[in-house]
Amino acid sequence: MAAAPIPDVPRAGQREAIAIYPRIAAIRGAGDIVPETENITTHLAIHLLSSPSPPPPTLRILDLCTGTGCVPLHLHSLLALHLPSLHLHGIDISPSATALATKNLIHNLNNHALQQTARAQISFTQADIFAPKSQQWRRSHWDVVISNPPYISPSAFNTTTSRSVRNYEPKSALVPSPTHALDQNRGAEETAGDTFYPRLLDLAEQVGAQVLLVEVADMEQAVRVARMVLAESKGVWAGCEIWRDWPAAGGEGEEEVVEVDGGKVRIKGEGNGRAVLAWRGGDGGRMIGKKSAFDSG
Q1: Closest CA to 215 of 164, 274, 269
Q2: Which uninterrupted H or E stretch holds 215?
Q3: Sheet harboring 86-92: ordered strands across?
Q4: Angle subtended at Cα 222 by Cα 295 and Cα 148, rounded to the nearest 5 degrees
Q5: Confidence at residue 75, expressed as pLDDT on a 0 to 100 scale
Q6: Of the candidates 241, 244, 249, 248, which has an alpha carbon nearest to the alpha carbon of residue 273?
Q7: What is the pLDDT of residues 18-43, one digit of tens each?
Q8: For residues 197 and 281, what is the distance between their CA atoms, to the nearest angstrom?
């Protein structure tokens, strides 16, 4: 598929400092989204639309820890005009969040901020991704898994987040529950925010995802997650790279890499570490234009 133009959507100013939007609050408009999350979501859409290989007949995207559903809404606003067959599904443990995500979908449809196809192509389910029982969404195949999970450690929540975030943001949307921590991470402050990532890698493997994109707090956490991708995924993933806040920025000069357990992981863009992208060989690489295992495209 030739490179496709991205439709106009609201854009937050580059490097604009704003508070995190509350997950249990209305998101008005498909592009009304935290700037860094919008940047990495848009960058993923560009990769999917710019790949020379044709997409699957129906591109299926699973958003874990969806909150108010702004990521599926935003992705649909970017992809729907170019990929007529889509299925985007958001999962969140909070029934209030999934109810609001559905309201936001209806709100954007009624205000013509989304294509009417979104009515049938976007859906939400309340579920605990740590629950052992099999659910329909886990028995299905998904091409892409994306997640902005709780990733802030308890001490960072108390010392680095703003008062407005601490007072109005649901803590469960930001700080992982200690009950979900791996045994080796219990009581370890440095990795207390990493709880969700092994589970996300495991679920992405279970549903056959070819591409995985997870948001992180900073570069230190990004490196730890990249280490999980390379060392703990049983060879499932052919490659990964780290995206900064503005992954499309830069591009001039020497390529930036970081050494992870003896290997090299490319770093894209400018700003702080914001996301880790992983892809499988073959179909996964072709889906986002990766020519070889660690080719950043």
Answers
A1: 274
A2: strand 211-215
A3: 122-126, 86-92, 59-64, 144-147, 211-215, 270-279, 239-246, 263-268, 256-260
A4: 100
A5: 95
A6: 244
A7: 222 333 233 443 334 678 889 999 99
A8: 21
